[in-house]
Structure formats: C-alpha cells, structure tokens
Amino acid sequence: GNKKCDSRGALIVLEGLDRCGKTSQCSRLISYLEELGHAVESWRFPDRNTGVGQMISSYLANKSHLDDHAIHLLFSANRWEKRSLMESKLRSGTTLIVDRYSFSGVAFSSAKGLDMEWCKAPEAGLLAPDLVVYLDISPEKAAERGGYGGERYEQLEFQKRVAQSYKMLSDATWKIVDATLPIEDVQKQLRQIIMECVLTCQQGKPFVELWQ
Ligand code: FDM
C-alpha cells in the first residue's frame, strides 16, 4: 500500500574504472535528490574512516604490503562493518548513493588473478543494490584524462584487466552510461535512471541479498 511505513530508500551503486567521473556524478546526484526533498546520503567504499578502512588506505598508498587474498577480505570486511547501518538507513527511508561496492571488490581482485567465485564468496549476504550503474569509459580514454593519483591500482595495464573483469561480472540489470559524454549529459541520464529506482523502492520493493 501507500502507507508511509512501507516506503524505503534505494540502494544505488555507481561503478566504473578510475577517472570515469563517478565521484563528481555522485555528488551531483545527491544535490539533485536533496533539492527534490528526498532523504539521501552519499556513501563510498572503501570507507577509509574505520579501523579496517585505515588498513586499506595504507595498502592503497603503497605504505603497507598485504597478500592479495588478505586485502580482498579486508575490503569485504569494510562492507560488512557497514551492513547493519546501511539496512537501517534504507528502512528509515534514506536513499544511499554508493561510490563503489562489491563489484569493485570482485573486479579489482580478480584482475590480479584471483578466482572470481572465490572473490564473490565473502560478499554473499550483503545487501544487493537496487540499481547498479556502470559509467563506461575505455581504459585508454580514462588514462588520457590524467590525474591518476599514484595509488596502487592507477595504471593502464591493470585498469584494462579491471575493465575485463567488470564485463564478466555485469548482467542485464546493470544500466550502462557512456561516461565519455559531456558531464551534464551523463548527469541527465543518471537522473532519469535513478528516479525510476527511487520510486519503485518507495513502493516497497523487497530487499535482496548478494550474491545471485
Ligand atoms: N577497490 C575498491 C578494491 O580493490 N576493492 C574494493 O572492494 C573496493 C570498494 O580501491 F582503485 C579499489 C578501487 C580503487 C581503490 O577506491 C580505491 P577509490 O574509489 O579511489 O577510493
């Protein structure tokens, strides 16, 4: 029904290669939804503010070395430590726009050669996004944008393997947006796509868990 207590927020995830424009598109989406009067929060993974997040941050800055499996599990743990807060926010009606999620986890680790099914396993039981939007750009074009900050994964050859992994992971439910279009055009498409999702969730779409 239309009772207020039925309405929940949407879990919306943006994925894509480094330099695809995810972060600025996310913040524009937040302003847009706020202007429309929606309860909305900007989230990102890794969340570097937790204890686990600080270990991840130091790994990404090349300040520590960790086994590929170990860092994979830390990225996953970083999502698990936010799971209950995520669910309560959504239940209370707040929409979450999330910059990277489990798909980054699997795409980046499997790009190192880890088995994809092994990579997916610790994600099982996390909340499944109501919508995944992939901001599509070739690794070469992304590299041309420059500004790779020098973190561990910001290298063309590695980003090429990440792109292949994303392709294997994606399914028919993903919305693919051409990230090489002008910023305003990308934003326009994103707004249309996410509003549809926000409305379905308001109408009480049930929660689903990864990994299907
Ligand atoms: N990354 C991100 C992973 O390798 N696994 C994960 O689970 C997540 C969420 O961390 F290169 C990688 C992707 C990226 C790096 O991400 C840091 P940001 O978006 O640049 O903070």
Automatic annotation (TrEMBL):
GO cellular component entries: cytosol; mitochondrion; nucleus
Pathway it works in: Pyrimidine metabolism; dTTP biosynthesis
Entry's Gene Ontology molecular function annotations: ATP binding; dTMP kinase activity; nucleoside diphosphate kinase activity
Enzyme class: transferase
EC number: 2.7.4.9
Alphabetical keyword list: ATP-binding, Kinase, Nucleotide biosynthesis, Nucleotide-binding, Transferase
UniProt keyword NAD present: no
Protein name in the entry: Thymidylate kinase
UniProt source species: Handroanthus impetiginosus
Residues of the full protein shown: 45 to 256 of 257
